[in-house]
Design brief:
By secondary structure, the protein is α/β, with parallel strands linked by helices. Helix content is 52%, strand content 10%. An eight-stranded parallel beta sheet has the order 11-9-7-6-3-2-1-12. Strand 1, helix 3 and strand 2 form a beta-alpha-beta unit.
Length: 404
């Protein structure tokens, strides 16, 4: 017994000594692995930096008119055979009969086919046209919120309004609902959905939104997250809207004015801010003017809202869209499409929405402005970079194809 007692400390000492040696060896191994990991990360970082420089150089080498074409999302003709009805000569004034293809196209009801198979063929027709004419393919977008904003109803079936989803579905059920919708959209060739609406429903906007909101702030945050994740996890870019909000004034006919003080306004924007953690591909600006921030300037044309707040303060790196610059909210208040296009770029907008089938006139104004203003051209380059990055990451276009 005494021998065991004497032996135990010796065994314990030996065990501790072995463990310390093992720990030292393990530490050395860990140091080696850490060094290796650091080297790998450094190489990845350097590779990304080189790719970034190559990407920027490619954009700078693109003809100015080609870059400007990427800044527009417009409507398109028909639902079977795609073609451009304008040429680059209408932008530059030079002889250039290349077809003018926008960066993106927005589908309305009359652009939809009778069956999903036919819709898929139309999408393929668009991409084949671009390939044949050596043009960068556009992203194909649609407003598919649900409820009465359900343009794909005859192709994908009914989709409940956002307010109905929030009141009748759990968050998990909502995720499945939107995932199923995204899969059907992707199968038909769509790449982007201008949804969900991330505005909280209030007395000041409920008449205009009419069920397009998920409801309370908590509901908008929870169901908005599920909606964005569902679409983007299934191949459809989500564009949250309408930042920084709306009122009961319909922007198709008048200019909404948000009269909230700064604290109230910041509170109303929490769902937008919270959703940035889930990296929505885009944010669509509203036309609303806000009394407490950049008073009198429509939000989609406001440098304060677009660049100072969204881009710099909130550090949002995705695509920022204007709402339709042909809406009455702008045209009836002194902002022609051409004037709005310039102001949008100056504000920091990446992609200008036009619900028309032609865009050479505002493109020409931007072209002429860029020729004489290098700072303005630099803004164009930054926007084109974001748009092309999205297209590469979404596999709309391959780097090798745009570098050729």
């Amino acid at each position: 017994m005494k021998k065991l007692c004497i032996l135990c400390p010796l065994l314990l000492l030996a065990f501790i000594s072995c463990k310390q040696d093992s720990d030292k060896k393990q530490t050395k191994k860990e140091i080696s692995l850490h060094k290796s990991s650091t080297l790998i990360q450094k190489n990845i970082s350097e590779t990304k930096k080189i790719e970034e420089i190559e990407f920027e150089n490619f954009i700078k080498k693109m003809p100015l008119e080609d870059r400007i074409a990427q800044l527009f999302i417009i409507n398109l003709e028909g639902n079977s055979n795609f073609r451009s009805y304008e040429t680059f000569s209408q932008v530059t004034g030079k002889i250039d009969e290349r077809p003018l293809v926008a960066g993106g196209y927005l589908f309305f009801s009359y652009n939809l086919c009778e069956t999903p198979d036919l819709q898929k063929l139309f999408s393929e027709n668009i991409f084949n046209y671009c390939k044949k004419n050596n043009e960068i393919p556009p992203f194909l977008a649609i407003d598919q919120e649900g409820g009465y904003v359900n343009r794909l109803k005859k192709l994908t079936g009914g989709l409940p309004s956002q307010s109905k989803v929030a009141s009748e579905y759990t968050v998990e059920e909502a995720y499945k609902l939107y995932s199923d919708q995204a899969k059907k959209m992707a199968e038909m060739g769509f790449t982007m959905n201008l949804a969900p609406v991330m505005e909280v429903c209030t007395d000041d906007n409920k008449d205009f939104l009419e069920g397009r909101s998920f409801g309370s702030q908590e509901q908008v945050i929870d169901y908005g997250r599920a909606c964005v994740n569902a679409y983007q996890n299934n191949g459809i870019a989500a564009v949250i809207k309408h930042f920084p909000g709306n009122t009961n004034t319909d922007p198709h006919s008048g200019l909404p004015e948000i009269t909230l003080n700064k604290e109230e306004l910041e509170e109303s924007l929490i769902p937008f801010y919270d959703n940035l953690d889930y990296a929505p591909a885009g944010i669509l600006m509203s036309h609303a003017i806000t009394d407490s921030v950049d008073k009198g300037v429509p939000s989609c044309l406001s440098h304060i809202w677009v660049t100072e707040i969204l881009r710099n303060e909130w550090n949002y790196q995705g695509i920022i869209f204007s709402d339709d610059i042909f809406m009455g909210a702008l045209q009836k208040n002194g902002y022609s499409p051409e004037k709005a296009a310039i102001m949008a770029i100056e504000a920091g907008i990446d992609c200008i929405m036009i619900s028309e089938k032609r865009f050479s006139k505002p493109a020409k104004v931007i072209y002429e402005k860029a020729l004489e203003d290098s700072e303005f051209e630099s803004k164009i380059n930054d926007s084109v970079k974001r748009i092309l990055k999205y297209k590469v990451e979404s596999h709309i276009v391959e780097l090798k194809d745009i570098y050729k």
